[in-house]
Amino acid sequence: MQGAFREHVDAFRRCGCEAMEVRTREELDEVAALAIPGGESTAITKLLRSFGLWEALLKRGAEDLPILATCAGVIVLARGIVGSDQVSLGLLDVAVRRNAYGRQVDSFETELKIEALGTEPVPAIFIRAPIIESVGPKVEVLATYREKAVLVRQGRILAATFHPELTADLRLHQYFLEMAEGKR
Ligand SMILES: NC(=O)CC[C@H](N)C(=O)O
C-alpha cells in the first residue's frame, strides 16, 4: 500500500522466493504469506480500509496467514496503540507506542543479537520506530533493544520494529519463509 514494499519484494526474491505486490483482495487471495512494510501506519491503515482489504486481512489473519510486519506494519497489526485511538487490526497481541524513541534518536542503526538467526549480530535500522510496550502471553520475544522487545513472534506472525528489508542481511526474511513453510 505504502512504504518500503519494493524493498521487501526484492529481499524475498533474493531469498529465491516468488514475490508480488498486494493491493487488492484478489491479489491477497493469491499469496501464501504477506509482508506489511514500514512506512506510515496511518496511511497504510487508511489505504487498507479504502481498498477493501481490512476485512479480508482480518479473515486471513484468523486463518493463520503467515505475516511479516516491519515498523509501521507492527502498528497496523497491534492489539493496541498506547495514547492513541488509531484503529489497528489486533492480530498481534502487543501494545505499541508510535514514534517512541524521541526526536534526537528517532532514526538510528545498531546491531542486535538474535539467537534465532544465528551467532552473527544482525544490523538493524530503526526509523521513527514504535516501541513495543507490552506483549501478551502467546507472544515470544526474539530480540530486545534497551530492554524493549524489537522482534516478536506470535504463531505465524513475525514482527520487527526495525527494517530488515533495508539491509543486505537476508536472515530475517529467510527465517520468516521457513516459519511460513512450517519448518520453524
Ligand atoms: N519506519 C516506519 O515505519 C515508521 C513508522 C511511523 N512512524 C508510524 O508511526 O507509522
UniProtKB/TrEMBL annotation:
Which residues make up the binding site for L-glutamine?
39-41, 98, 127-128
Q: Any idea which residues are catalytic in this one?
A: 71, 163, 165
* Pfam families recorded: SNO
Q: Which SUPFAM superfamilies match?
A: Class I glutamine amidotransferase-like (SSF52317)
Q: Name one GO biological process term.
A: L-glutamine catabolic process
UniProt EC number: 4.3.3.6, 3.5.1.2
| A molecular function (GO) term | glutaminase activity
**Is the Cell inner membrane keyword given for this protein?**
no
Q: In which pathway does it act?
A: Cofactor biosynthesis; pyridoxal 5'-phosphate biosynthesis
Entry annotated with the keyword Iron: no
Gene Ontology cellular-component terms listed? cytosol; glutaminase complex
Task: Please list the reactions this protein catalyses.
Answer: aldehydo-D-ribose 5-phosphate + D-glyceraldehyde 3-phosphate + L-glutamine = pyridoxal 5'-phosphate + L-glutamate + phosphate + 3 H2O + H(+); L-glutamine + H2O = L-glutamate + NH4(+)
Q: Point out the coiled-coil segments of this chain.
A: none
Please provide the record's keywords in A-Z order: Glutamine amidotransferase, Hydrolase, Lyase, Pyridoxal phosphate, Transferase
Which proteins does it associate with, and in what oligomeric form?
In the presence of PdxS, forms a dodecamer of heterodimers. Only shows activity in the heterodimer.
- Which NCBIfam families does the record cross-reference, listed alphabetically? PLP_synth_Pdx2
Family the UniProt entry places it in: Belongs to the glutaminase PdxT/SNO family.
- What is known about what this protein does? Catalyzes the hydrolysis of glutamine to glutamate and ammonia as part of the biosynthesis of pyridoxal 5'-phosphate. The resulting ammonia molecule is channeled to the active site of PdxS.
Protein's UniProt name: Pyridoxal 5'-phosphate synthase subunit PdxT
Cite the source lineage: Bacteria, Bacillati, Bacillota, Clostridia, Thermoanaerobacterales
What gene codes for this chain? Answer: pdxT
